[in-house]
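Cast an eye over my tokenised protein here and flag anything odd:

===
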Amino acid sequence: MPHSEFLAWTQLDRDKAIWWHVRDRATCQSCGTRDEEWDEEVGGDRFAYAPAVGHCRGCEVKGQAQRELDGAPDGAYRVGSYADLRVAGGIEMRALTRQLKEQSRGDLARKLRRNIRRAADPVVRDLRAAVLRTVVTADPASHTPGRGYRNRTHLRERVAAAITVSITQKGVRIRVSAARVGPYGAVLSKYLDAEITQYRRWRHPVFGHDVWAVQHGQPWFFNTISGHENELRQAVLDAIDETKRELSG
């Protein structure tokens, strides 16, 4: 476009065109997002988007033909798949919560929280079962606790009962309440999960003996949640969409 033609535009149109250019330059050409969308210091969210895998039949057919031409062996790779980004729900959740409050729709807000909490119930159930199955082992060179010690403090049961669900502005939070576990609850529940590097083992005195035991738990918290991650995220998004429809209706 000739510069003289650009100058013939109104000031508002020129400002919009310049701002569009600046925004376009700040957008990642690979994923289509901007740094400020991820930067919490400027109002963004480090979990603003989550990867979503899609499939295109056209790309699949084209890829299969290309693979035949290239002589690639069957099963060498899966064609037709691509990675995309979609809103993970945190931004939508905050905006919807604010909108419900502005319109005094406490009924819908309560229903939204109830639906999200219901979606988290299977995760909590599996977490409780997982921690109850956790096997605590001792180092071979360590003095092992005597008979009857294994679950004398009922730590697994206390941790299972302390798993709670809360609804936040970003969606759902599942955690172990240290207060409900009891004394040293903040660290004991972590020691049971050997997936946390700094809590992979703990050393304690053996009751009634002048010896110490070194014991290990096993992964139960994060790996259980990761198995429900996609379905829980989708359930939260579905609950948000349902609330939006009822609000607009």
